[in-house]
Write a structure and sequence with these properties.
The structure is a homotetramer of 345-residue chains.
Chain A (H helix, E strand, L loop, with lengths): L3 E6 L4 H11 L4 E7 L8 H4 L18 H6 L4 E4 L7 H9 L3 E4 L9 H8 L6 H6 L1 E2 L2 H9 L3 E3 L3 H15 L9 E6 L14 H4 L4 E2 L8 H12 L6 E6 L6 E7 L7 H12 L5 E5 L15 E7 L6 E7 L3 H15 L10
Parallel strand pairs in A: 1-2, 1-3, 3-4, 4-6, 5-6, 7-9, 11-12
Antiparallel strand pairs in A: 7-10, 8-9, 10-13, 12-13
Amino acid sequence: MDPCKAAVVGASGYSGEELVRLLIRHAGVELVALTSRQFAGQTVGKVFPRFAGTRYAGLAFIESDISRILESGAQFVFLALPHGVATEYARPLIAAGLRVIDLSADFRIKDVQVYHDFYGEVHHAPELAALSVYGLPEIYRAKIQSAQLVASPGCYPTSVILPLVPLLQRRLIKPQSIVVCSMSGVSGAGRNAKVDYLFAECSESLRAYGVPKHRHLAEIEQELSTAAGEKVTIDFAPHLVPVSRGIHTTIFCAPAEGVEAWHLDHAYAESYGREPFIRLLGTAGLPDTKNVVQTNFVDIAWRHDPRTGRFVLLSAEDNLTKGAAGQAVQSLNIMSGQPETTGLL
Amino acid sequence: MDPCKAAVVGASGYSGEELVRLLIRHAGVELVALTSRQFAGQTVGKVFPRFAGTRYAGLAFIESDISRILESGAQFVFLALPHGVATEYARPLIAAGLRVIDLSADFRIKDVQVYHDFYGEVHHAPELAALSVYGLPEIYRAKIQSAQLVASPGCYPTSVILPLVPLLQRRLIKPQSIVVCSMSGVSGAGRNAKVDYLFAECSESLRAYGVPKHRHLAEIEQELSTAAGEKVTIDFAPHLVPVSRGIHTTIFCAPAEGVEAWHLDHAYAESYGREPFIRLLGTAGLPDTKNVVQTNFVDIAWRHDPRTGRFVLLSAEDNLTKGAAGQAVQSLNIMSGQPETTGLL
Amino acid sequence: MDPCKAAVVGASGYSGEELVRLLIRHAGVELVALTSRQFAGQTVGKVFPRFAGTRYAGLAFIESDISRILESGAQFVFLALPHGVATEYARPLIAAGLRVIDLSADFRIKDVQVYHDFYGEVHHAPELAALSVYGLPEIYRAKIQSAQLVASPGCYPTSVILPLVPLLQRRLIKPQSIVVCSMSGVSGAGRNAKVDYLFAECSESLRAYGVPKHRHLAEIEQELSTAAGEKVTIDFAPHLVPVSRGIHTTIFCAPAEGVEAWHLDHAYAESYGREPFIRLLGTAGLPDTKNVVQTNFVDIAWRHDPRTGRFVLLSAEDNLTKGAAGQAVQSLNIMSGQPETTGLL
Amino acid sequence: MDPCKAAVVGASGYSGEELVRLLIRHAGVELVALTSRQFAGQTVGKVFPRFAGTRYAGLAFIESDISRILESGAQFVFLALPHGVATEYARPLIAAGLRVIDLSADFRIKDVQVYHDFYGEVHHAPELAALSVYGLPEIYRAKIQSAQLVASPGCYPTSVILPLVPLLQRRLIKPQSIVVCSMSGVSGAGRNAKVDYLFAECSESLRAYGVPKHRHLAEIEQELSTAAGEKVTIDFAPHLVPVSRGIHTTIFCAPAEGVEAWHLDHAYAESYGREPFIRLLGTAGLPDTKNVVQTNFVDIAWRHDPRTGRFVLLSAEDNLTKGAAGQAVQSLNIMSGQPETTGLL
C-alpha cells in the first residue's frame, strides 16, 4: 500500500511539532505540506533544530493557504490551530473532498448551546460540529473509519473519559458522584509567550486553575452523558505542575447499588483488554506520567476504598501524544486503513 | 526576655535542617545542641555548607545521647527523628522536666487501636500519646501553651485539616462527602537514598501513591472527627510531583442542607481572620506553592460549584516549614511565651 | 539609630522583588516607596502574593515619578530598571541629594568607548558613569561608603571578578590566559514574556548563548584590568540551565612564572579571610549553587592541576541576591553606616 | 536480510534501558536475551513499565550467566555493566565467537599504565584492551566493521573528542591550549541510590565535580593524542546540572600559527559533512541539549573570538544515546552490515 499523503496546518505549536515528530517515523504517511504564517519559507530543520538530519528536515513550511494545501496533494489534513480558527480551513478542505483531523476544540461540542455556555461565543460552524466524529478510537473506532471530519479530543478529556466510560456504560457508578483531579505539564499551555509559563514562574510551583468551570468540561460531560445515558455533571480541578509533558488524572466516584470491586476489573478487561494503546495496571500498579511520555499509551489503574466505599480511578498520558498529536495519528491510521499502531509503537 | 534554650535531636534530615535554618534567624531562641549519630563531632557549617558563615556555623553536632542533651541546658527539645524512635528520647527528657516538640507521627494518634490499624504495630508509648497536644496552633493554641509534649502535625494533615475544621465545626458540610487530592514535593520522602527519589526518576514524573490508605489518614480523620463531633472517614490521594518543597491540597465536599456559598466566607473569616500564618485567598485567589515555600504560611481559597453544588477548598504550604519545622517553631514560640511570629516572618 | 528610608524604583521585576524580600527582614531600613508603571495603585501583597501577611503587604506601588519618590522621604533609592532608563531617574534624584544604588549596567562602564563597543549605543550619561562607584564591597568598600551613586555589579561579573582580583592584584596568574565558563538560572533573563524562557523550552535544556562577546565582558574586563594594572581580555561563555536562581562560574588560568599552588591559598585568605559574604572553600570543597541560593554569599574554591599546570577557580552565588539585590543592600548598609551584614544573614 | 540476534547483559541500568528502548524500534535486530541479577525471571514490561505494550514487553530477564547467553543464539552482546566486571563476560563470549560491544570503560584504555593512573587498579584484561576497537564510528568506522570487541566511548569523551579530532588531525590548534567545560544530566550518575542524586538535592543545584582529574580524561587524552600525533594533556571540568539527560560541552583552544576562522569551517565540513549523526551548526547556531535528547545526534558549533584569538567549540548530545546506547547500536549496525542509521533516526 502506498503511503497516504498528509498535511499539517499550523505546525509551529507544540501539537504541530509533535505531529512532525511522529510522522518522521511513520512508514505509512508521506508528509507533503506544513503550513505556518510565522515560518513560511523556512525548513523543518531550521524551525525545529531537533528534526535537522531527519527525513523531513528539508521540507519548507508554506503559507496557511487553502490553495497551497490543495496543490500539495494531501488526502488528509491535520489542523493544529488555536481555538476558533479551524472552520475557515475545515470548510473548504472538506468541500474539496479532503479528510480533516482537527486538534482544536472547535468541532468537538455537538450542542451549540453547551458550546456557547463554555466558550462564551456563538458556534462558528454548527453544521461541521454535527458532521464531526469525536476522535477517541477506543469509543468511536467504526465512525472514525469513514469520517470526513474528526474532532480529536482534548488532553484532559482523554484522560478523564477513558477511565469512566466503561463504568458508566455498565451503570457501575453513580454518575453524580464523580469528582476529578488532574495535573498537567506546562506544554499544555501552548508555545505562548506569557509570564505565567516562564521557567522561573513554573519551577517549584503547584497550583490549580480554571476551577470550577474549565472549558474541557463541555466535551467531558458530553461524552460521559452519552455513556451513562443520562446527563452527567462532574467536578473537575486541573492543576499546573512543573513537568514539560504529561497529564495525570485521579477520579473519585461512588459505586452504584450492589456493585463490587471485581466488577471494575471485568469492565475494564472487557472494554479495553485488546486496546493497543490502553495499558490496564489494575489494582496493583499505579500510573506514572514518566512511563507514557512520548508514547501514545494511556495507563489506567483503579482501587476500591473499603473504608469509604468509593472507587478511585487513575490515568496517565502524554498530553501532546495520546492527548493530542498521537491520538490524531491513531485516527489517521484508522481512516486510511492502516494498522492502527503504525508509527506509534 | 532572655532567649530560651533549645536542642534539635536528629538534625541531619530535611526537617532538622529546616529547623536550623529557622533558628539561625530566630532572636528568641538559643540553639544549644544538635544531635546526629551520623555527624557527631562535625560542625553545622561542615554538614550543611549552606549554613557556613552564619550564627551556628561552628556549633558541633553531638551524639544523640540523653545525658548530653540534658547537659546542654536545653529547655525545649525538638525531636526530628524517623518514625518509631521518638519514645526513647521523649520519656527521659520529659521526666527530666524538659518540654518536647516531636515532629514524627509517634504521639499524634490518641486511639492506640487506630495507630495499630494504620501503622501496623503496637503503640510504643500510649501514655505519651495521651499526654501530648496536637501541635496545630490555629486549633490548639491554648493547650500548646502549657504542653509538656507537643505532637507536631504531619505535612499533609496540616494542609487538609486547616481548610476543613472551620466548616466541620459549624456543620456546613457533609462529613462523609469529603474527598482529598494532594500533591507533594520530593523532600517529603526525606533524605533517604532510594532509587525512587532520584532526580532522573522524579523529574518529568507525576504519580499517585499510598492510595487509598495513607498513614496520614489516621491523624487527619482524628482531627476532622473531633471537629465534626462524629466519626469522619474520607478519601485521600497523595501524589508525588517534581518540586523539592511544597504541598498543594484540593478538597471536594458537599454542603450540608441549606448551606450557601457565603457561609464559607464567614466561617473562614471568623476562624482564621486573625491568624498570622493563614492567608485567606477567598473566592478569587488560588494558592500556589511558590508563594508559601520557605514561609510558615498556609494559603487557603474556596469555591462553590453551582453546577454540581459542591464546594472546592484549596490550600498550599511548605511541607518542611508550616508542614514540619516552622509549625514546630510556632509551637515553641507559644510554649515559651514569645510573640507567635518570632523568627517566622 | 533610626532606620534609614529607602525606595525601590521598578520593583516589579525579579531584582525588585528580591529587594522587597530582603527589606522585609531588614531592621535598619524602612521601605517608604515602591514604584511600578504596571502595578501603580496595587499593594505589595497583591502584586507579590508571596509577601502577603508580611510587613509591607499593605504598601501600595506608586507611579515611577520623581516628585512622588522625593515626597516619600526616601534617603536611598534602588533603581531596578531595564537597561537604558536609569539616567532619567538618577540625575534628578542625585541632584536632589538622594543617594542612588543602580542595579542596571548603565553606570558601570567608565570608558564610554567600551560602553559603545559592547552596548551599541552612545552612553546616556558619561558624567554619572564617571561619578559612580562600582558597588563591589569586597573591592570598593571605602568608596561605597561615601558614594552618591553606586553602580551595583552584574550577576556574572560578581562571580568572575571576585575569584580573579586577588590573583591579578598579586600577579599570580597570566592575565591573557583567563577563560571563563558560567551557568546561570533562568531568572537571569528577567520576568519577560519570551518563548525562549518558557518552562517547556528551558526544562531539559542546556545551552550556551552570547558567545563570544557577552555584554558583561565590558565590566568584567574593566575590573580585571584595574586589578592587573594592564589591559585584560578574556574568553567568557555563559550558559542557560534549568534552575530558577543561581550562577556557577568555572575559571581556567595559567600561573605566572614561579607561582605555586599555596600562593592562592595565601592570597585568598589575605583578601577575603574576613569578608562576611565570601566563603572560602579552599582546595577541598566545591561550590554548589544550592548552598548560596537566597543568601548573599559567594562560595569560592580553587585547584591546581599538576598535569597541565593551570589553576581552576570556581564560584557560586545567587544571581538575584549577591548577584543583584543582596549586593545592593550590602552597599546600602555600608553607605548608611550600619553593620554590613544587617538583614543579609 | 534476516535481523541479527543480540543480547543485553546488565539491562537494568539507564544505559541498558536505553538499549531496550532503541532495539524495540530497530527492524534489523532481534533481541533474544536480557540479563539482570536483580530482575531475572521478570519481564521487560514489568521491570520497565514504560515498555509494557511494546514488542519485547513479554521477554523475561535471565540470569547473567554465560551459558544462558550462549543458548539464546545471540550473535552480538551488549555489556551494560558497572565498571570492572566486563572482563568476566567478554572473555568467554569472545572465545565462543560472539561479538561484544562493551559500554563500560574497561577496554577503552590501551595503555595499562594510564589505566592504572586514572582508575587506581591493575588492568583486568590487557589483552582485551589491546584487541578492542574504540567505538567511535566517525573515527574508527572501518575497524569497527570487523571488530570482535568494541569499547564503546564514554559520554563526556564523545562530546569532547568529536569536536577536537578534525582540528588536531589538521594541526589547526595548539594541543596544550585545550580547556574543556562540560555539563551533564543526572542520569549520568547511573540508577544508583545515593543521597547526592536525590531530586531534592539536585534540583536548583549547579556544581562541578571530579576537578581536575576525572577518569574520562584517560580516554579523551588517548584519542586526542592519537589525532594530534603527540601527547595531549588538557583541563576538563565536568558539572552536574538538573536535567535528566544530556551533555553540553564547551571547549576553548588557541589556533596554531597562521590558522584562521575559515579553516575550521573547512575541516568540519570535510570530516563530518557526510556523517549521519553529526549536525554541523557552524558559526551561527548553538547546540542545545533539548534538540539532541533521545536522538543519536551530536550537534557541533564553533566560534572565533577575534578579541582573544581563541576558538570556542560547542557540542551537545544525549549522554544515554550518542553518549552510550545509541552509539553502541550504531556500532552494531556497522558490524552487522546494516545501514548505519537503522533504528536510530
